[in-house]
């Protein structure tokens, strides 16, 4: 099987690519290697992937329409896993255009490539951020998500709508995955676990927003990868019971599905910090701050649909996942 993985030098894309290669698949990894965060970290991930003869790399930006067309024509991809995006809620307040370029225009090129080149299945990353102002817990893919609180979230909701339109118009099987606060080895430097670890080890204060009154459904990266791996051969089917009079946002009469991938076990931010302090053997200097624009107080994934579809739901304990991250961090940075 030939699979295109976009964002292959990124955090999740790197881990997904490794899993597919381990299963004997041929992987073409796409990444533009932008400088949103340390390019050296991206290149080090890429060096590992390039050790496998079944991996090839295309340095390409999703918004390069001609380049994307040529890649799809030459690749003969059976499956596409789209993990490339401009990430980060807070950065969307500073540079909103980056989100329109990558997450909207770039995603259109993915959809067009799949449509015109007989791709069997498109899996793409959405985000728990689409739940926005929703407060009904746990978050369900069958609930309304029309009130995002950041442009990043709005771009991910737009991806879901764009994917549905292509599924409806062209019969393209598409599966959208709403990721919940992913963490683990080789993680992104702009995420809380990375930022906190770096600061605590350096004896610097950490910023704790909403006075620490936050809950997050922290999900270990290996669980995300397992969910994606199981869904690749699981092509979405049309929902014959779908009712336009009472429309279900999580399915469709088209071959379209949405799934949450989260640990379905929200943790208080202060408890999360305590676990990290224990693992590092060092106390954090906390600076308690108000809620940041674009943030939400809590996330909590309902994963019943994922469990029903592929017999899997994330379950890695936070203590185990943090231990694995800290082990990697100390080894990678020599501290």
Keywords:
globular; 335 residues; alpha/beta; 40% helix
Task: Characterise the protein shown here.
The protein starts with a strand and ends with a helix. Helices cover 40% and strands 16% of the residues. Strands 3-2-1-4-5-6-11 form a 7-stranded parallel β-sheet, sandwiched between helices. The protein has a two-stranded parallel ribbon with strand order 7-10. The protein has 11 helices and 13 strands. Helix 3 packs parallel to helix 5 and helix 9 (269-280) packs across helix 11 (318-333).
Annotate the secondary structure layout.
Blueprint: E1 2-6, H1 11-22, E2 26-31, H2 39-49, E3 55-59, H3 65-75, E4 79-82, H4 91-94, H5 96-116, E5 121-127, H6 151-170, E6 174-179, E7 182-183, H7 192-201, E8 205-208, E9 215-216, E10 219-220, H8 221-231, E11 256-261, E12 267-268, H9 269-280, E13 285-288, H10 304-310, H11 318-333
Helix pairs in contact: 1-2, 1-8, 3-5, 5-6, 7-9, 9-11
Summarize the structure.
By secondary structure, the chain is of the alpha/beta class.
Rg, please?
Answer: 19 Å
Poorly predicted residue ranges: none
Number of helices: 11
What strand order characterises the main sheet? 3-2-1-4-5-6-11
């Amino acid at each position: 099987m030939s699979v295109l993985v976009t964002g292959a030098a990124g955090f999740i894309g790197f881990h997904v690519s490794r899993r597919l290669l381990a299963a004997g698949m041929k992987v073409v990894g796409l990444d533009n290697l932008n400088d949103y965060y340390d390019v050296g970290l991206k290149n080090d991930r890429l060096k590992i992937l390039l050790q496998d003869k079944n991996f090839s790399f295309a340095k390409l930006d999703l918004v390069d329409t001609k380049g994307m067309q040529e890649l799809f024509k030459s690749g003969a991809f059976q499956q596409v896993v789209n993990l490339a995006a401009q990430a980060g809620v807070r950065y969307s307040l500073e540079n909103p255009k980056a989100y329109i370029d990558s997450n909207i225009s770039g995603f259109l090129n993915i959809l067009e490539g799949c449509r015109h080149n007989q791709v069997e299945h498109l899996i793409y990353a959405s985000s728990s951020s689409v739940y926005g102002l929703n407060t009904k817990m746990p978050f369900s893919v069958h609930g309304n998500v029309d009130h995002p609180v950041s442009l990043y979230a709005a771009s991910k909701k737009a991806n879901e709508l764009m994917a549905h339109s292509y599924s409806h118009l062209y019969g393209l099987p598409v599966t959208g995955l709403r990721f919940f606060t992913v963490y683990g080895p080789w993680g992104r430097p702009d995420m809380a676990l990375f930022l906190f670890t770096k600061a605590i080890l350096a004896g610097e204060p950490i910023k704790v927003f909403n006075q620490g009154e936050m809950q997050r459904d922290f999900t270990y990266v290996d669980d995300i990868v397992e969910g994606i791996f199981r869904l690749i051969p699981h092509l979405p089917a049309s929902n014959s019971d779908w009712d336009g009079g009472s429309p279900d946002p999580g399915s469709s009469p088209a071959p379209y599905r949405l799934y949450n991938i989260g640990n379905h076990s929200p943790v208080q931010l202060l408890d999360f910090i305590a676990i990290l302090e224990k693992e590092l053997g060092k106390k954090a200097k906390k600076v308690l701050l108000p809620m940041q624009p674009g943030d939400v107080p809590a996330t909590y994934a309902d994963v019943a649909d994922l469990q029903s579809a592929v017999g899997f739901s994330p379950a890695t304990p936070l203590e185990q996942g943090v231990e694995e991250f800290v082990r990697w961090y100390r080894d990678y940075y020599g501290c």
